[in-house]
Specification:
Elements lengths: L13 H14 L2 E15 L2 E8 L8 E4 L3 E8 L7 E4 L25 E7 L5 E7 L9 E7 L13 E10 L4 H11 L8 E4 L16 E4 L4 E8 L5 E6 L4 E6 L2 E8 L1 E4 L4 E7 L8 E9 L12 E7 L17 E2 L9 H9 L19 E13 L12 E7 L2 E3 L6 H7 L31 E3 L2 E4 L3 E9 L8 E5 L4 E8 L17 E3 L1 E4 L3 E9 L3 E7 L2 H5 L3 E6 L20
Parallel strand pairs: 1-4, 3-8, 9-12, 11-19, 18-20, 21-26, 23-24, 25-33
Antiparallel strand pairs: 1-2, 4-6, 5-7, 7-8, 9-10, 12-17, 13-16, 13-18, 14-15, 14-17, 18-19, 21-22, 26-31, 27-30, 27-32, 28-29, 28-31, 32-33
């Protein structure tokens, strides 16, 4: 639901309307949404299945709010699975109870139960998204979350003619819960998806799918803002529009210095706003909008297909009501990078810079209270007795940070912390650095086994943190998109090989680094981030490749309350789900 003020008010009401406008600008409004989690049938690739959705839609409903608004979403669970929803990238300052990751900030919503997510969008504007945050249900439970600037505040770039959400997803013919359960039981890698999708549609490059194609119709000379969201489970993606350039203006709901590219890369969890300016004349052609994976993993462990939508032009010589897609026109296809083109990815991410203007400053912590070093990568666990496992050398696949493969607790961490009943739920001793250093990107050690545990890293309120995340070569180097809940962070540096704590900091960008909530740890390299721990609560940090998260590539930060009342976690809502 959205509210709009009429511009055609009688003159006696103009003063009252102006006053109301000022109040709305200062305080925002409250927007209410009803999300019914329900099963719905969908047919893709000539395969029909019943799947979990919100309100029977996939993608689910688009949430729209303005900076400063309060958003209230009642979620009712009408399916057999437990559910929880995460509002990806929303800071949730002091409202961690609304963040959504199951067993971290809440117990999941059980069948037949409801929970109201209630939060204010403060100091943020741009494209975010929402998704299920339990098991692999986000495969079909996701949607756009668009935060408009405050009323009267323009974009820091020319206003587009139209704004269009473009959400990348994945389609499995199988039930994704069965896919992940089979992988966990066998200890091997999960089966890959059957197709990528754009706004839920696989498009003409897949079997039986030409009728299920996303089409964007444009007018010559007009500029369109594409709100790109990578909601795929396990794939980073290249994206391009044939014979058109894309001007990047925002990532993860933070404005960047605009730059223009033919192709971009976007990882699961990330958003990117781009301006696409249509050609000034009717081109007499159609153009593929294509996405295909970036991966350095072993072949067969990721879906290596291409999804396409179609960009088509309104023909001034035809009436607008004429058939939108003219058959027989030339169809141009973009050339995407090779699937393992890490150099392209590096060159693209190096271009990302904060605006760093008086209106939109880059508040990079210039001094650091705590420095941490995390290894991020794959590993193994011994195969249980009387079982055959499909991981390397009869092991179970695993993943870890600082060699700790995180085990989800049976009780939610945030409530355990808030009530002081944390004993037996978690330990506050996550390692601040690897306990056994090795040549992280060189020849891997013979012992690839990881430890398991539910460990948190505790921070005092307002601690300035520098974290270096280092990929490892254990079971092969891979890029890992790491998402931090509850905060944005600044990406101050990245490089390849092993991080050099003596020489690499001299290259850090502390002036205008990009600010975001999800960053790729480079394949065979490292990334350095800084953030201010000014949000009390328990905040999940994990790889946004769902297979790696399932294997344990996740941890959580516990940020303690500050001394002032407005620095303390608010008490839990009365309808907080119980485990």
């Amino acid at each position: 639901m959205t509210m709009a003020l009429s511009s055609a008010l009688p003159s006696p009401l103009l003063l009252a309307a102006s006053l109301l406008l000022l109040i709305v600008q200062a305080q925002g409004i409250t927007r209410h949404y009803e999300f019914n989690v329900q099963m719905a049938n969908a047919t893709r690739l000539c395969n029909t299945k019943s799947m979990v959705t919100v309100n029977g839609q996939c993608p689910g409903p688009e949430l729209v709010a303005r900076e400063g608004d309060r958003v209230v979403i009642r979620v009712t669970n009408n399916v057999a699975h437990n559910i929880s929803l995460h509002w990806h990238g929303v800071r949730q300052v002091r409202t961690g109870w609304a963040d959504g990751p199951a067993y971290i900030t809440q117990c999941p919503i059980q069948t037949g139960q409801s929970y109201v997510y209630n939060f204010t969008v403060a100091g943020q504007r741009g494209t975010l998204w929402w998704h299920a945050h339990i098991s692999w249900l986000r495969a079909t439970v996701y949607g756009a979350l668009v935060i408009l600037p405050k009323l009267g505040v323009p974009y820091p770039f020319p206003a587009p003619h139209k704004e269009v959400p473009v959400i990348f997803g994945e389609w499995w013919n199988a039930d994704t819960e069965e896919v992940v359960n089979q992988a966990v039981q066998t200890g091997g890698g999960p089966n890959v998806s059957d197709a990528f999708t754009i706004n839920g549609l696989p498009g003409p490059l897949y079997n039986c799918s030409a009728q299920d194609t996303f089409k964007l119709k444009v007018k010559p000379g007009k500029t369109y803002m594409l709100r790109l969201i990578n909601a795929a489970l396990n794939e980073e993606l290249f994206f391009a529009v044939a014979n058109h350039t894309l001007t990047v203006v925002e990532v993860d709901a933070v404005y960047v210095k605009p730059f223009t590219v033919d192709t971009l890369v976007i990882s699961p969890g990330q958003t990117t706003n781009v301006l696409l300016t249509a050609k000034p004349y009717y081109p007499g052609a159609n153009f593929y909008m294509s996405a295909a994976p970036y991966s350095t993993a072993r072949p067969g462990t990721f879906g290596n297909t291409t999804v396409a939508g179609i960009l088509e032009y309104e023909n001034p010589a035809m009436s607008p009501s004429a058939a939108s897609f003219v058959k027989g026109l030339p169809l141009f296809k973009p050339t995407l990078p090779q699937l393992n083109d890490t150099d392209f990815v590096t060159n693209f991410t190096d271009k990302l810079r904060s605006l760093a203007t008086p209106e939109y400053p880059a508040a990079v912590p210039q001094s650091v209270d705590k420095r941490f070093f995390f290894t991020v990568g794959l590993g193994t666990l011994p195969c249980p007795a009387n079982m055959t496992c499909q991981g390397p050398n009869n092991t179970q696949m695993a993943a870890s940070m600082n060699n700790v493969s995180f085990v989800l607790p049976a009780r939610a961490l945030l409530q355990s912390h808030f009530t002081g009943l944390s004993s037996g739920v978690y330990a506050p001793d996550f390692p601040v650095a690897p306990l056994s250093p090795f040549n992280y990107t060189g020849t891997p050690p013979n012992n690839t086994n990881v430890k398991t545990g539910t460990k948190l890293l505790v921070l005092r309120y307002n601690t300035s943190v520098e974290l270096v995340m280092q990929d490892t070569s254990i079971l092969g180097i891979e890029s890992h998109p790491l998402h931090l809940h509850g905060f944005n962070f600044f990406v101050i540096g990245q490089g390849f090989g092993n991080y050099d704590a003596v020489n690499d900091p001299a290259k850090f960008n502390l002036v205008d680094p990009v600010e975001r909530n999800t960053v790729g740890v480079p394949a065979g390299g490292w990334v350095a981030i800084r953030f201010l721990a000014d949000n009390p609560g328990v905040w999940f940090m994990h790889c946004h490749l769902e297979a790696h998260t399932t294997w344990g590539l996740r941890m959580a930060w516990l940020v303690l309350d500050g001394s002032h009342p407005n620095q303390k976690l608010l008490p839990p809502p009365s309808d907080l789900p119980k485990c």
